[in-house]
């Protein structure tokens, strides 16, 4: 413990009774004020004024463009069909043993308020520098001065929230969608239980890693006592694009991956393959989507020693252009017969799976090295779909059985979540339709 | 066991926050910081000028300007260099503000250019008029009195326990000494924030090897812990160190009546005890040789709970929800610890506690520590 805790015998700021009138101020506006103060008036008044945005109104219309804000409210949750951001912090939570349905609902309401603030580029609660010097600030502060950075926060509910060890902890068992299965074991899986499962998840995506990490950190802090982090994963370098007009990103194997993904603007395919429709399952999931998260470790070192031909045969695409075998350009329709039958594209392409599509939203990860000098790196695979039983499961069974890529990868973490429809307007909260 | 000084990074961070807070306050025309009543301190490389050497007690604001060329720090010391309040890392040309609750009495303000040494001292007198010398709420005054009594009881009970521990070492009875190690620490661990406010006792008695400052001789509990467990040794050095530990702790016992205890320091002390658990016990760093971490853990929680229970009449009135949460979290962590109590009254050695079990402890500590960090503001402010 610090020998010199300045608060121990001092009572800072009896002024803490001041009302938190800056509660909804934007992060950048705060810096504007602080900057003016530090510079002792050198900053022109105009620059301060410019930094203060009128964003007290959390309605999406007011926030649509400024500071790279993705609207929080809407029919579907943001962070699914939203153009994929550059960075990820994904966290799976367990609900603590002593939590009740009521405490969980209370948390979900608090989380929703915080999520609306953070995705709008605003501080949590009474902010990072509140009037009271006596209490720890509500907001942890590392995102001060940063724009919203297209932050999206997407919540999901895991199978164990509905039933764990045969116990219906929160009276939700009857609401569990049939599609929210325990994923089967796939051939070659080597799942670490400490990187798998979870009662809840939050996917934080942003163009700035600090903004994504800030979001998860603050939600975790708010959740302490009710939920605790089971595992979390940082990701960078999106590996799939939902904006097909842009260049398809490359995974850590150096290949373009996810060329034939569902575009965020492709409402027909989104309706057909991503959003749960009325009648698909319980009503609370209508407009939602099922998320499969897989931590896929790549055997980077052996992959790097594979010849170019072997690498291209593994994917069924050329490395440079990304063109499917037998074609010239990346987006040319592939001729599956022209590529090895066990290549990744030959097995995974919709044409080989009765038109089956999933919306991929994965990120690369590198968690340093593994203690044996090997990169602990790979793909944090995230896929959204209308019904996991008809999408990820048959697809992965097929891949696990014969994908040539399996020689170079291993699935080491796995989780499945039901992500409900969007929060439509201020006052509504995450999971409201489920908890009622 | 404390790091004697925060890491530079942490200190810089706290400075950044303080600066932002000041700036924010200034723009809001905050009525507290920098007001006309503030005591102004001009710190230079060679002087520590105080605008008045006599001012009323109660809530005191010290506005510090560092006009020197070195980063400085400012302390307010009571007799015997007991730290009343302090601010570190005030950069050249910058200002900082300390808000503190200071009772009537004689003090010294020390500016420490370069953040080293005893500093440039200035005697001050805090008078009784004007400011309240007791907390406004008489229940808080009663809580402080009760807590001081508790701290004294803990010290009074610790001394004979440490004497027995020392006697076993001096008698060369290794196993007995080992069995008396953890119990000798209980009273200390329950009230550690009070002990740390004395500044010099804690480094002598409760320092871990990796936290020694350059040139500091390693003494105290953890030095003996290593001898007993890692080296199976009760030699002449250990016998001398055992006597010294007893002497140092008798010194602590004598100092408690003069400890600066306020409702704020009680609440923050409770939070700090949980910080101790989170930082040192959960990782098994505290008692790395004896693995008796859970005994310290239990004592930290008990001490935090005592402080909370004494403040609870006020806390429950001002923030009933916080009080309910704290009641529930203290009960939960106590129940979790109870699962590790063995038939002979000792705890499961921490090296036998699995990673998954440590995660459960960590979650419980976070669940309690987070609301506990809000206790000071709930009790003192409003």
UniProtKB/TrEMBL annotation, chain A:
Biased composition (Polar residues): 1-10
InterPro entries from the UniProt entry: Dimeric_a/b-barrel, Dyp_perox_C, Dyp_perox_N, Dyp_peroxidase, EfeB/EfeN, TAT_signal
Keywords carried by this UniProt record: Heme, Iron, Lyase, Metal-binding, Oxidoreductase, Peroxidase, Signal
One Pfam family it belongs to: Dyp_perox_N
Keyword check for DNA-binding: no
EC number in record: 1.11.1.-
Region Disordered, annotated ranges: 1-22
Biased composition (Low complexity): 11-22
GO-annotated molecular function: ferrochelatase activity; heme binding; metal ion binding; peroxidase activity
GO biological process, alphabetically ordered: iron import into cell
Top-rank lineage group of the source organism: Bacteria
Any one Gene Ontology cellular component term annotated for this protein: cell envelope
Family per record: Belongs to the DyP-type peroxidase family.
Function comment: Involved in the recovery of exogenous heme iron. Extracts iron from heme while preserving the protoporphyrin ring intact.
Name under which the protein is recorded: Deferrochelatase
Automatic annotation (TrEMBL), chain B:
Organism of this sequence: Kitasatospora aureofaciens (Streptomyces aureofaciens)
Similarity comment: Belongs to the EfeM/EfeO family.
Domain of life the protein comes from: Bacteria
Gene Ontology, cellular component aspect: periplasmic space
Record-linked PROSITE patterns: PROKAR_LIPOPROTEIN
Pfam family, one: Peptidase_M75
Protein name: Lipoprotein
Keywords, sorted A to Z: Lipoprotein, Signal
Signal peptide: 1-23
EfeO-type cupredoxin-like domain residues: 18-126
Keyword Lipoprotein: yes
The Imelysin-like domain, residue ranges: 143-375
Localization of this protein: Periplasm
């Amino acid at each position: 413990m610090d020998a010199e805790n300045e608060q121990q015998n001092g009572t800072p700021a009896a002024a803490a009774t001041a009302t938190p009138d800056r509660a909804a101020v934007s992060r950048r506006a705060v810096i504007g004020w602080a900057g003016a103060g530090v510079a002792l008036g050198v900053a022109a008044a105009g620059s301060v004024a410019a930094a203060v945005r009128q964003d007290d109104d959390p309605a999406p219309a007011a926030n649509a463009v400024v500071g790279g804000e993705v609207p929080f409210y809407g029919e579907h949750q943001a962070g699914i069909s939203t153009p994929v951001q550059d960075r990820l912090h994904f966290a799976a939570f367990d609900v603590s043993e002593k939590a009740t349905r009521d405490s969980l609902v209370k948390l979900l309401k608090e989380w929703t308020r915080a999520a609306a603030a953070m995705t709008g580029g605003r501080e949590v609660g009474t902010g990072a520098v509140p009037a009271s010097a006596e209490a720890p600030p509500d907001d942890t502060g590392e995102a001060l001065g940063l724009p919203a950075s297209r932050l999206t926060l997407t919540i999901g509910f895991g199978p164990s929230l509905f039933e764990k060890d045969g116990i219906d902890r929160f009276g939700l068992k009857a609401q569990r969608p049939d599609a929210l299965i325990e994923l089967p074991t796939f051939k070659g899986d080597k799942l670490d239980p400490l990187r798998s499962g979870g009662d809840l998840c939050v996917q934080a995506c942003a163009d700035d890693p600090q903004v994504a990490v800030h979001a998860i950190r603050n939600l975790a802090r708010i959740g302490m006592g009710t939920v605790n982090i089971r595992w979390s994963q940082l990701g960078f370098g999106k590996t799939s694009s939902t904006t097909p007009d842009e260049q398809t990103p490359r995974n850590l194997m150096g290949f373009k991956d996810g060329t034939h993904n569902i575009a965020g603007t492709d409402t027909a395919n989104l309706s057909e393959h991503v959003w749960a429709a009325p009648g698909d399952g319980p009503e609370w999931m209508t407009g939602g989507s099922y998320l499969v998260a897989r931590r896929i470790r790549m055997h980077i070192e052996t992959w790097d020693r594979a010849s170019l031909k072997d690498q291209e045969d593994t994917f069924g695409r050329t490395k440079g252009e990304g063109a499917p075998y037998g074609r010239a350009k990346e987006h040319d329709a592939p001729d599956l017969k022209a590529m090895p039958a066990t290549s990744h594209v030959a097995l995974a392409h919709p044409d080989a799976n009765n038109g089956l599509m999933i919306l991929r939203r994965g990120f690369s990860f590198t968690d340093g090295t593994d203690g044996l000098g090997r990169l602990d790196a790979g793909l944090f695979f995230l896929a959204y779909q209308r019904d996991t039983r008809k999408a990820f499961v048959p697809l992965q069974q097929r891949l696990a059985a014969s994908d040539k890529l399996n020689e170079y990868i291993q699935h080491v973490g796995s989780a499945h979540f039901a992500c409900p429809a969007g929060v439509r307007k201020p006052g509504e909260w995450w999971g409201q339709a489920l908890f009622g | 066991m404390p790091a004697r000084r925060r890491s530079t990074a942490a200190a810089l961070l706290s400075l950044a926050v303080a600066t932002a807070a000041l700036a924010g306050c200034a723009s809001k025309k905050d009525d507290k910081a920098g007001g006309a009543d503030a005591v102004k301190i001009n710190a230079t490389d060679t002087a520590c000028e105080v605008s008045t050497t006599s001012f009323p007690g109660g809530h005191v604001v010290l506005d510090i300007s560092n006009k020197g060329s070195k980063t400085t720090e400012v302390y307010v010391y009571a007799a015997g260099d007991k730290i009343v309040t302090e601010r570190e890392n005030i950069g050249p040309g910058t200002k900082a503000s300390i808000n503190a609750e200071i009772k009537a009495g004689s003090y010294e303000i020390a500016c420490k250019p370069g953040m080293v040494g005893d500093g440039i001292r200035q005697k001050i007198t805090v008078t009784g008029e004007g400011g309240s010398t007791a907390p406004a709420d008489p229940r808080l005054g009663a809580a402080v009195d009760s807590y001081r009594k508790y701290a004294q009881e803990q010290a009074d009970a610790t001394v004979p326990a440490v004497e027995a521990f020392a006697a076993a070492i001096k008698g060369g009875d290794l196993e007995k000494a080992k069995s008396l190690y953890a119990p000798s620490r209980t009273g200390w661990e329950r009230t550690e924030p009070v002990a740390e406010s004395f500044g010099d006792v804690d480094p002598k008695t409760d320092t871990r090897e990796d936290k020694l400052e350059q040139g500091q001789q390693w003494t105290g509990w953890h030095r003996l812990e290593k001898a007993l467990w890692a080296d199976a040794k009760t030699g002449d050095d250990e016998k001398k160190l055992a006597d010294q530990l007893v002497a140092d702790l008798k010194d602590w016992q004598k100092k408690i009546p003069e400890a600066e205890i306020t409702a704020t320091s009680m609440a923050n002390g409770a939070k700090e005890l949980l910080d101790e658990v989170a930082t040192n016990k959960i990782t098994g760093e505290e008692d790395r040789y004896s693995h008796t971490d859970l005994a310290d853990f239990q004592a930290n929680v008990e001490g935090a709970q005592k402080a909370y229970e004494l403040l609870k009449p006020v806390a429950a009135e001002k923030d009933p929800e916080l009080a309910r949460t704290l009641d529930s979290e203290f009960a939960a962590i106590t129940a979790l610890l109870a699962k590790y109590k063995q038939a002979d009254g000792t705890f499961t050695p921490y090296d036998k506690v699995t990673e998954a079990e440590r995660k459960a402890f960590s979650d419980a500590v976070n669940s309690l520590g987070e609301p506990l960090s809000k206790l000071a503001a709930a009790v003192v402010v409003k």
